[in-house]
Structure prediction request, 292 residues.
Amino acid sequence: CIGAYMTEAKKDVTMIARGAHLKAMQKDGLRMETTKKGNYIIKPVKASTMEQYEEHPDVIFVCVKGYSLEETVPFIRRVAKPETIVIPILNLYGTGGKLQEKLPGLLVTDGCIYIAAEIKEPGCLWQNGDIFRVVFGVRNPSEYRAELAQIKKDLDDSGITGILSDHIQRDALQKFSYVSPAAACGQYYDAMAGEMQKPGEIRDMFASLIHEIDLLAAAMGIHFEVDLVKTNLEILDSLTAEASTSMQRGVKKGKASEMDGLIFEVVRLGRRYGVALPVYEKVAEELKRRGF
Prediction:
């Protein structure tokens, strides 16, 4: 959706894709179905495979799933110029630091995205709800560059709320404190947003998982400026009843999933920092019992 909104705003953007989705965009443009802006088509769009792309961009947004991150590294090394800024906005926590180790010499920020969207079919994106914001920033203030403010402006100009964070570790973990509990609770109960919005056992588990992320963050030396449980319940309640996490959708389709980074990694972090996370442990044990 970032590429779609920025293309619509006349920014110079190339979307990297593959397979039937790429062919459909190249032939017919990108069809958008949204609850926010209605249905429309963006045409033409610039779209390419990683192998065919030959430009040297100012900014690279890395929007892949965690299990596909490694395959982006050779591509970024090939196309980046020394001034290129890399902004990963994956669901997983700590991606920027890991990617920075593999891309020395480039500025790799951390980041996250708030949106409910998916590829509905080749050449068509479905965006559910009104929330669309990108949060990004450097982990070390000495790495700050003026271009980051321009990236925020370009996002804002495109109808995306751009937030240039002065504490990206906290803000990225705050996003993770929603998506990880939502994925864990949703997968445990096979529940979509509508079932989690109703008072009862499912909603209570979601809230308990958020609380455990808060406990883990404190042990990591990260303290939030908001009430995590209240904030994330408000996000949940803003979604349509049929919304779910991309992890759940991938599992249902038999695809690779980010379950390890979203659920099992939290259990590992709890043990590393000496924090009891009984609800995450319960979910992890049950998912392992189911064969995940």
